[in-house]
Every structure is written in C-alpha cells, then in structure tokens.
Design goal:
The chain is an alpha+beta fold. It has 23 helices and eleven strands. It has three domains: 98 residues, 2-Layer Sandwich (Alpha-Beta Plaits), CATH 3.30.70.1130; 404 residues, no CATH class; 84 residues, 2-Layer Sandwich (Alpha-Beta Plaits). A hairpin with a 5-residue loop joins strand 8 and strand 9. It starts with a helix and ends with a helix. About 2% of the residues have low confidence.
Length: 724
C-alpha cells in the first residue's frame, strides 16, 4: 500500500508539473543595492515599452571589410530574411546604425522581438542560426549574442547517469549484492521525481532562478541515496544479529532512521537559513533545495522500510553475490579498518598535524578570492556566445562587453541639464575610461544617462575600481542638486558580489553557532562540538581555497573543463557553507555517536575511537564516495555555474569525509581522551535528552529480549525438576 501510494503521488505530481511547465527566470538581482536604485530611476525617467528579447548578430569579414559591396549585399539579404519571422519587431542594420568597428571589419546588428527573451521560441532561434551559418559560408563570420539564451541550462544528461552508475557500483560492493544496491537508487529516483515536480510546480507561482532546479537535483540524488544507505546498512546489521525481518526493519528505522531525520533537518535548516542574507534568488534556491531534501527524508523513513519488507530475504546478508564478495574483500574489511584505526590512534599528534597542514595549504588561496557572475566571456570557445564576445572585444575594446550606465538626476534646479553636465564632467577624465557618450536627457528633462566604456573587461579588478571611483567622486562633490548613480550589467554584478561577500561571515557565524548547539544537545559534551565546528571551518576554508585555485587562478582548469579562468561564482560560498554544514554534521553524528555509545559502555576512550572507525567507517566511506560521484557528475556540464557548484561540493565532501571526519576527528578524539565527553553537571541537567541514534529503543529491546530469555530458562528448569 505504501509503495503504491508513493508511486501514485509521483504520477500525480508529474502530470501536474509537466502540464503546467516550468517558469524559471534567469534574474539574479538584489533589491536595495546602489545599481538597483539607479535602475529604478532609469526606468521611471526613461519609460520604454520595448521589453522584447534581443539577439545580436556579430559579423566579421574574413576578406576585405564589411562595407565592401559584396559583404553589404550579403548582410542586407540576411537581415531581410530575419524579418520574415513574424515575431521579429525590428532589426537595426550595422550600416544605418553605424555599429561598425574603426577598421570596418567587425560590426553588429540587433534583432528585437515582440516577446520577452525567455519566450522567444526555438523556431526563431533556429531561423537565426541558419542565417548565421549561411553568412559564414559566404565569407562573413557570424556569431550570436544578446539577451536570448542559446545555451540552455541542462537539468540532466549522460554525466548524471554515469554518476548514478558509479553510486550503484559503490553500493554493490558495500552490500555485496546487486539487488540490495539497486534499492537506494530506486528510492532516491522516486524522491527526486517527487521533489523535482514540486519545485517545477512552485516555479509557476513564485519567482525562481533557473539554477534552483539544478541544486535541487544535486542534493535530492546525493542525500536520497545516502539516507537509504544508512537505513539499509542498519537493517542488514540487525538481520545478521539474528532478528526477524519486521523487527530488524523497525529497529533500523528507529535508530538509523532517527539519524536520517536529524541529518535531514540539519541540512534543511541550513538551506532555509540562506534566507537570512535577504537576497531573493538565494532564498528561493535554498527553499527549492530544502524541499528536495525534505522529500528525500520522508522517502527514506516511509518508502524505504516498505520496500525492505517487500524485498523479503532477497537482500539479507546471507544472500551475497559471490563475485562481489570476492572482489570487495568483505572478509578483509574488518582487518583493513582495524589497521586504519591503529594508524590514526597510535600517532594522533602526527596525524592531526599533517591533516591541519594539508587543510591550511588548501585554504590559503581563499585569501584572494574574487567574486562575480559568469557571462559569455567565461563560456567555452565552442559556443557562439563566447566567440561573439571575443569579436566584440576585438572590434570595440574589452570594455564594450561591460558598459557602465551613469544615471544623473537633477533635484530642484532651474537648469537641470546644465547642472547635470557640470556634475558629470569629471567622468570622462577618470583613469580606465575609454569613452563616454554625451548626456542624453530624459523626456522630463530632469535626468540624463551617460554610457561609459571602460578600457578593461567586466571581470577586471580595474573595472570594479572605476565603478567605486565614480561613486566616491559623486559623494565627494556633495552636490545636492544632482544625484549620480551607476547601473548596468557590470555594476549589478559588482554590487551582488559585494553584498554576498559581506553576508558570508554573518551566515557562517550563524551556521557555526547552530552546529555547536545541535552537537552539544546530541553528544552532551563541550569539546566534541568545538572540535566538530573547527573541522567544519577547515572543510569550508579548504573547499573555497581549492575553488579559487582552480576557477580563478586557472590551475588544473583543463582537467575540469574550465574554459576560462574568472571570478568565483558570487553565490557559491554562501551555498557551499549551507550545504556542507548539513552534510558534515551528518557524518559527524554517524561516526562520533558510535564512539559515544562504546565509551558509555566501556569507559575506554581510545578503544571507543577505534570502534567508531571500525563500525561506522565503512558506511561513512561509502556515503562519502556516493556523494562525490553524484556531485562530480555535474562537473562535466557545459554551464560554468553548474560546473563550479558540482566541483565545490564534490571536493568539499572529499575533504570532510576522508580528511576531517575519518582522519582528523579520530586523532583529536584520541588526544582528548575521556575529557572529550566532559560536560558540567548543571549544564547536563538543563539540556534536553535527544536520542538521535535510538539508543533507548535498543535498550528497551534488549531488556525485553533478556526478560523473555530468562522466562524460557526458568520454565525449562521447572520441567527438568518435575521429571526428577
């Protein structure tokens, strides 16, 4: 019944989602920034009904110049063909608009449509591509730019399938069973479908970035597989200890299921916590991802037990695949884990120092991190948008791809335009200004716009400095009659990056505080939460440092398919902080809770560390490898934003699972000894008891079992006595 209801829910949501379609936007703006305020003034003073999408055809003559008679005829014929598309509103020829480079070899024509950029259909795009291809055959290189996107965001592809296949093989070797390996994949895909359709339906009612769905897919797959893995591992362990199937399922859901709920809630809290930075598109990305994780948790604790019951004895530990058992070395697994635990606990000082040294080295590049939003200049040279970007830079200068729009508004002036001209005279004389157009007055006459072309590109630090200089000079003038503001795509990018950079420390502090409180409640200790928080900070620092080293500095860029070094995605540090926090706490709880369980039973701190590695290490290792496989599959996406998200999360899990949790944490726990579990008596009384691992359930079960066994023994003894 549960399985049927789950599949029925998926079918209903899929019908609704596919019927309604998606309504994602590519807008990444932050209300209240200086560029946003300038944009509002610009829209009010220069009202325009022209909100249609635009495609820019960029030409370069292979021979002669664009103004030769033959090339002119070819371009005019091409633009005439463009107008045959009924959705085209207007076409601006390079010969009438004088949009030609100084040497007349490069020029561009703007095609404006009667519908928004997101609604320009594939037929119109294909029509323009065919015309561009025809011009290329006639000796005129033709590339494409503008607001209409030709390189769409990929939600799924062959790389994601490869990631799932790798996860399947990891599960197969973990469980030594192909059937058992398939169940977590199956439940994760069902959860992914339900979560994905929920997000798609939601996109029709709220404004949501197109990257929200990508993040939701990443997390739904990764945590969905891992959470099912945790419950199935505990279930098979209970079966191996002799419990019947129904009891084993109940105990697995009470223990590992409790850990899944805690881990999932931690990730959800971190993702919902992204709303504290008060950036709308970041908030919606966090909420979309939180929905997918919430669905994954429900699937793990409701659908997974039902599927385990339906599978019966076919996935029990006794039904191992001989080939997998031979190659996985399951008989040697305990020995190898014993060896690793001995290495870590025998020389804890050396282990801790080496780990800290490696993590510190990885963190160093983070100190010169530069944030930004990728544009066509950071795409692969195989895309027409990138080639068009390069042609514009070649013909009109680097700054042509990142113009600055200066909005000047006069307040209470008898001659507004004269006041504006006087107040903005300094702009053309600033360093790094290639050119500045004359002020264009607004219809009301109270405002004007000036387009400034920097000498450097939109991602150059000198362009950022130019924007800051214009604003500083305007403030220094203390001219209350004229207000000078900067907007445009480049200024918006700069303001978003600055806002996000300011929000990162606040959000990280919130996350660290939350981690400390949660872990203190779970482990009833002061030093364990401090150690966990420091480990998370090492994970975060080394992850961001690695991303800077690869994406910004360009090292190993070819290996990961980074087409061009550039700034780190502006919202990546915030996202990575939230997501890695949840996943790091997941591994921390799963590993250290076993150490705590053994310590409370034996009082031997060193042996409890070894026990945690031996019993929880294999599951943490498998879970980490699965996460890495899923996240790494997104590295092969064409889009730079998706690629950087996948790379950051894959490396972050690699560091956290294998360097921090499996190596540094056991070393530190060994050094701390019994003091790791110290908590003042007064604080212990105040804290509520949170049984994450379901220890109380297991204790009650052992008591009941022991009582039952004792009753059987007494009955047998009475029978023996009665027979003499």
């Amino acid at each position: 019944m549960v399985i049927t209801m789950g599949l029925a829910l998926l079918i209903v949501l899929a019908s609704l989602g596919l019927g309604m379609g998606t309504s994602f936007t590519g807008e990444m703006t932050i209300p209240g920034t200086k560029s946003d305020q300038a944009a509002k003034v610009l829209n009010s003073e220069f009202p325009s009904s022209d909100d249609g999408g635009q495609i820019r055809l960029i030409f370069k003559a292979k021979n002669d110049s664009l103004t030769s008679e033959a090339n002119k005829n070819y371009i005019r014929q091409a633009l005439k063909d463009v107008k045959t598309d009924l959705s085209v509103k207007s076409v601006a020829s390079p010969f009438e608009s004088m949009t030609l480079s100084a040497d007349k070899k490069i020029g561009y024509a703007d095609i404006t449509y009667s519908k928004p950029a997101s609604e320009v259909d594939e037929h119109s795009k294909e029509h323009v591509l065919n015309i561009a291809e025809w011009l290329g055959k006639e000796g005129i290189q033709t590339e494409i730019g503008g607001s209409v996107a030709f390189s769409e965001i990929e939600v799924g592809g062959i790389s994601e399938v490869i990631g799932i296949l790798i996860a399947f093989m990891i599960l197969a070797f973990t469980f030594t069973s192909f059937l058992a390996a398939g169940l977590p994949i199956l439940t994760a895909v069902i959860g992914l479908g339900i979560g994905l359709m929920t997000v798609i339906i939601g996109s029709n009612f709220v404004s949501m970035s197109s990257f929200s769905i990508t993040l939701a897919v990443m997390l739904a797959l990764a945590v969905g597989i891992d959470y099912a893995l945790f419950i199935m591992s505990r279930y098979r362990q209970q079966l191996a200890e002799g419990y019947d199937r129904e009891t084993a399922i109940a105990q697995a859901n009470a223990t590992a299921g409790g850990s899944v709920v805690f881990a999932g809630l931690t990730v959800i809290i971190a993702l919902v916590g992204l709303s504290v930075v008060q950036i709308p598109f970041i908030t919606m990305m966090g909420l979309a991802a939180a929905i997918s994780v919430f669905v994954a948790v429900l699937i793990a604790i409701i659908l997974v037990p039902a599927i385990l019951a339906a599978a019966g004895d076919r996935i029990s530990p006794s039904r191992e695949n001989r080939w997998l058992r031979k190659w996985s070395g399951s008989k040697k697994e305990k020995t190898s884990e014993d060896a690793w635990s001995r290495v870590v606990t025998r020389k804890p000082w050396l282990t801790a120092i080496l780990c800290i040294a490696v993590l510190t080295m990885c963190t160093l590049p983070f100190l010169h991190m530069q944030l930004g939003l990728p544009d066509n200049g950071l795409k692969s040279t195989e895309t027409t948008e990138r080639r068009g970007y390069d042609l514009m830079a070649e013909g009109f200068g680097e700054g042509f791809n990142g113009p600055l729009v200066i909005v000047a508004k006069a307040n209470h002036s008898d001659d507004p335009q004269a006041a504006i001209a006087q107040a903005t005279a300094y702009i053309s004389d600033l360093p790094n200004v290639s050119s500045a157009t004359p002020a264009i007055p607004s219809p009301s006459g109270n405002a004007a716009i000036i387009t400034v072309l920097p000498k450097t590109g939109p991602h150059d630090i000198r362009t950022t400095e130019l924007v800051e200089t214009i604003r500083e000079k305007a403030d220094q003038q203390n001219n209350k009659q004229v207000e000078i503001m900067v907007t445009g795509g480049t200024a918006v990018n700069i303001d978003i990056s600055e806002k996000l950079q300011q929000a990162l420390p606040k959000f990280a502090l919130l996350i660290v505080g939350l981690a400390f409180v949660l872990l203190m409640l779970v482990f009833r200790s002061l030093l364990v939460p401090i150690k966990a928080v420091l480990g998370f900070l090492f994970t975060l620092g080394s992850t961001l440092g690695f991303i800077v080293w690869v994406i910004q500095d360009g090292y190993l860029a070819n290996m990961f398919g980074i087409p061009e070094p550039g700034p780190v995605l502006s919202f990546l540090p915030i996202l990575v902080t939230g997501i890695l926090f949840g996943l790091a706490m997941d591994y921390e709880v799963f590993l250290v809770s076993r150490m705590r369980e053994d310590f409370t039973q034996t009082g031997d701190a060193r042996q409890s560390v070894k026990s945690g590695i031996i019993h929880s290490g294999p599951v943490v290792t498998a879970a980490g490898l699965i996460m890495i496989a899923v996240f790494a599959s997104f590295i092969f996406a064409e889009d730079t934003i998706i690629k950087s998200m996948g790379l950051a999360l894959a490396f972050g899990i690699l560091v956290d699972a294998f360097i921090v949790r499996m190596t540094l944490v056991p070393a530190i726990m060994t050094l701390l000894g019994k003091s790791a579990w110290y908590i003042p008596a007064w604080l212990d009384r105040l804290l509520p008891n949170i049984d994450v691992e379901g220890e109380s359930v297991m204790r009650e079960n052992h008591k009941a079992t022991s009582g039952f066994d004792q009753t059987i023994k007494e009955k047998n003894l009475r029978e023996v006595k009665s027979r003499g």
